[in-house]
Design brief:
Layout: H1 2-26, H2 37-43, H3 47-69, H4 72-79, H5 82-94, H6 100-120, H7 136-152, H8 157-186, H9 190-194, H10 198-219, H11 222-245, H12 253-274, H13 284-291
Helix pairs in contact: 1-3, 1-4, 1-5, 1-10, 3-8, 4-6, 4-11, 6-12, 7-8, 8-10, 8-11, 10-11, 11-12
Length: 292
């Protein structure tokens, strides 16, 4: 369990750094490129963005190693601490001390993770048959994602950024679930993995998630776009872990109360951290980009 926690936190650190670098590059792109592949084609030319993607990829690899050792419900809350690491990097960049709100948010996020893991005690899990009806949960997730995108296109820029970020978080949660499913299938041999559909769906979901996330980063500063992603990913992953892989959570009265309290503390902490001025980005890059 200790190694799983370390892998999860190291993954979160790399993902948080990656998000910071990606947003720094994406925010300077024209708004008209949102949800277009052209946005990714322009971003891939930027060294900072490539560094951010490399950092996130490293985090995903470490996250996969954690998912190989533990259930989705165990790993997801650990990955949600990426916002703490993103905030710490911002504080170092601006060379300023964190205030009470940032420390409160960090305590709520880390405390929420600890309470959830101690109360829910997630464990177990098995991969269902490729044509099992339990995979309908994947279709439900895709419908939710599409709904968020459709609504985002009809709202203000700030709301659009939050909705697109939430859609990206939902897909990242699905990505984690598909990774877990692929790893469980791999235990039965390479042939078993290549004859099922989740490993093939995994890169498609990953690319769509990146496109939605960069579009959210293009639309608004990190403090607006990142918290929605950070909150949506663990919730989606935990639900899918239980629905698809039949991961077991403690359901007693006290355990259920602790589980809910842990998730609430996690989400509230994410919201508090997301409001930190350290994650606010000036409009200078956007103005310079639009002036060219």
């Amino acid at each position: 369990m200790i190694l799983t926690v370390l892998l999860g936190l190291m993954a979160a650190a790399l993902i948080g750094v990656g998000f910071m670098a990606q947003q720094h590059a994406a925010y300077a792109e024209p708004l008209g490129e949102m949800l277009h592949v052209q946005l990714l084609l322009h971003l891939v030319r930027k060294p900072v963005w490539r560094f951010g993607i490399a950092a996130m990829a490293g985090g995903q690899i470490l996250g996969a190693l954690a998912l190989q050792r533990a259930s989705v419900a165990q790993v997801e809350p650990l990955l949600a601490t990426n916002l703490i690491f993103a905030l710490a990097v911002s504080a170092l960049v601006y060379q300023e001390r964190l205030g009470r709100a940032e420390w409160l948010g960090a305590v709520l996020v880390s405390g929420g993770v600890a309470i959830f893991l101690a109360s829910a005690q997630p464990r177990g899990g098995r991969v269902p048959h490729p044509v099992s009806m339990t995979w309908v949960a994947v279709l439900a997730v895709l419908v939710v994602t599409a709904g968020l995108v459709v609504v985002a296109l009809r709202t203000s820029l700030k709301a659009r950024a939050m909705l697109l970020a939430a859609a990206a978080g939902v897909l990242y949660g699905l990505q984690d679930a598909l990774t877990r499913g692929s790893l469980l299938t791999l235990e039965h041999g390479m042939q078993a993995m290549f004859t099922t559909w989740p490993p093939y769906a995994l890169p498609v979901v990953a690319v769509l998630g990146i496109l939605l996330n960069q579009s959210a980063f293009d639309a608004a500063p990190l403090r607006i776009s990142l918290p929605a992603t950070t909150a949506a990913e663990p919730i989606t992953g935990i639900v899918l872990g239980v629905a698809i892989f039949r991961e077991n959570l403690q359901v007693g009265v006290h355990a259920l109360a602790g589980t809910v309290a842990g998730l609430v503390a996690l989400v509230v902490g994410i919201v508090i951290l997301g409001r930190s001025p350290f994650l606010a980005k000036s409009d200078t890059a956007r103005q310079e980009a639009e002036g060219r």
